[in-house]
Amino acid sequence: AKCGACGPGYRSPLEAMKGPREQIVYLPCIHNNTGIAKPDYLATVDVDPSSSKYCQVVHRLPMPHVGDELHHSGWNACSSCHGDVTKRRNRLILPSLISSRIYVIDVETDPRAPRIHKIVEPSEVMGKCGLANPHTSHCLGSGEIMISSLGDLAGNGKGGFILLDGENFAVKGNWERDGQAAPFGYDFWYQPQHNVMVSSEWGAPKALSHGFRPEDMKAGEWAISLTPTHYPNPTHSSPHTLRSAASDLLHVACLAHPTIGGQAVQCADTKGRRCGKTLGKFPYSERLIIIPQKKVCGMLLGAIPGVITDILISLDDRFLYFSNWVHGDVRQYDIKDTHKPRLVGQVFFGGSILKGGPVKVVEDKELETQPKPRFVQGKRIQGGPQMLQLSLDGKRLYVTTSLFSAWDKQFYPEVMKEGSVMLQIDVDTEKGGMTINEDFLVDFGKEPDGPVLAHELRYPGGDCSSDIWL
């Protein structure tokens, strides 16, 4: 995305939609809980249909340690620095959810074969910030990098933010002021033109590492809020928290166009998954999408709520997508009228309610029958749809099927044996609608050292879930 005297990224979201088609993607691949004592690695996958390596892992960059649990990634610079000619999007920031290391990856020297540029050790993160378990990374217009955290050194919940220097990647300290960390942490997104940042919560790391346990929820070890905060000056942080009846709040996504005053976010309650929108003033929120829970037998819980584990919005703000990990579907909503989202696309694969499986659905307000198992190129898709990434033009939606190794092991033990997969969904960008591309499959069960869990996807040139416009 070069434009002469411009910095990284694109001038606007609509300009980004005219960018080149993705040719490679980066994915962290995790060995934790698979029984394979090998380091996690960053995989480079060829997604160019004209390439002889199409749908293949063309490079693997192993980390130097075992047990990191690579998770989400971000950039040293993105479209928020587009006006700064001194900035380049040349480093991928790759935090480790369990070890608390932060890897800085050089993707400029050879984009198809990344290399480690620097390692920020846990001692530096913990010593300067008192934080651990880093999760979401965003580049800031200031040139700094901000990373949300889930906990403290003892594994308790602590939703603070780590600031890295954007040049030498040294830990600068905390973004939030003393005493302003949320009880828990997870994802975040900021919108500079509206001076707002929205962060979500998950739970205490010491509880999450054991998988889902109802007793942890009763003990208050789980997230219950969505916190809007003034940005960029945390001194003006609002103490207001959007709680309602929420039991957990995961990923956050803002509308791409900063002139529109809204942030689309996820939230949930015990009656079903809800996708809401906060507008302008912090206390205001709308519950726009409700996914009814399904009453079942043959599972720990008597009813399965929708569990939305990723969410994104197309760069023209036309469609919203989310993955419903436990039910097993990916949904597409037309949000041209942001107050009245319309379901226009839905595909099922994997999930816990498949026909012929151990779980029998006894009451379902959405489906007449349980979904059938899905096969792509002869392989049965295990697990459930998890991380999403949309092409810049909005026509291709990539999906992976691993959430977090401890939870994968509990909910989908077959994925630990067979590895996760990466699929591609073709999108109708005119009327809405989605179909699985039967010619696309990356099977991470066939990796050289055994099955791995592939997680979040990133394009070298940026994407709709990492770029922010000022």
TrEMBL record:
Its EC number is 1.8.3.4. It is found in: Nucleus; Cytoplasm, Cytosol; Membrane. This is Methanethiol oxidase. GO terms for cellular component: cytosol; membrane; nucleus. Keywords: Acetylation, Cytoplasm, Membrane, Nucleus, Oxidoreductase, Protein transport, Selenium, Transport. Catalyzes the oxidation of methanethiol, an organosulfur compound known to be produced in substantial amounts by gut bacteria. Selenium-binding protein which may be involved in the sensing of reactive xenobiotics in the cytoplasm. May be involved in intra-Golgi protein transport. Belongs to the selenium-binding protein family. It catalyses: methanethiol + O2 + H2O = hydrogen sulfide + formaldehyde + H2O2 + H(+). Transmembrane segments: none annotated. One of its GO terms (biological process) is protein transport. It comes from Callorhinchus milii. One of its GO terms (molecular function) is methanethiol oxidase activity. It is a peripheral membrane protein. Pathway: Organosulfur degradation. It comes from the Eukaryota.
